[in-house]
Design goal:
The chain has 157 residues and is mainly beta. It has one domain. 11% of the residues lie in helices and 44% in strands. The chain is built from 1 helix and 12 strands; from the N terminus they run αββββββββββββ. It has one helix spanning 2-18, and strands at 35-39, 42-46, 48-53, 57-63, 74-80, 88-89, 99-104, 109-110, 118-126, 129-137, 143-151, 153-154. It has a 6-stranded antiparallel β-sheet with strand order 2-1-11-10-9-6, with no helix packed on it. A 6-stranded mixed β-sheet has the order 8-7-5-4-3-12, with no helix packed on it. The mean pLDDT is 86.
């Protein structure tokens, strides 16, 4: 019986040793964020930022997700093209005409059809270099702040 116990212990030790995962030689660090934003007082990195435009609007989309990841968390800041370069007071502007804002993460969703409580939004640019600011209070009182100055790539469909 003692032999069987010793044999079982050796087999168990061999099985455990075979299941060890190899240690990676080099762990690739996460990319540096291009900016940060604040949502409900918490700071989040921005790893993806792009813009899109048409005849009537300019939109900037930011996300803490890496570009190759599924963009489950993002914010969209948009303005009417005629208001480029001006600071828009959301309390005095037309929601969905002069500006729009969308925020989505796995728990919260703020539709562009819900008017913001207060704050300002601004988008200006020179070529593909943008200056984007948003300091706003969302419909339920949650704050959102974002400032960015630098190049953005256009959205590719």
């Amino acid at each position: 019986m003692k032999r069987y116990m010793i044999l079982a212990a050796i087999c168990l030790a061999a099985a455990v040793a075979c299941n060890k995962q190899p240690i990676p030689e080099e762990v690739t660090p996460a990319a540096e964020p291009i900016a940060t934003y604040f949502y409900d007082g918490e700071e989040y990195p921005v790893h993806t930022a792009v813009y899109a435009e048409n005849a009537t609007s300019i939109m900037v989309r930011i996300s803490p997700m890496m570009p190759e990841e599924n963009q489950t968390t993002y914010a969209v800041i948009g303005i009417h093209a005629s208001l480029e370069g001006t600071e828009i007071d959301v309390d005095r502007a037309w929601n969905n005409d002069d500006y729009y804002f969308i925020y989505e993460d796995p728990v919260k969703y703020y539709s562009q059809y819900r008017k913001l409580q207060e704050g300002t939004i601004s988008i200006s640019r020179d070529g593909d270099t943008f200056e984007v600011t948003a300091d706003i209070v969302l419909p339920d009182g949650v704050t959102f702040q974002f400032e960015y100055e630098g190049p953005l790539k256009p959205v590719i469909d």
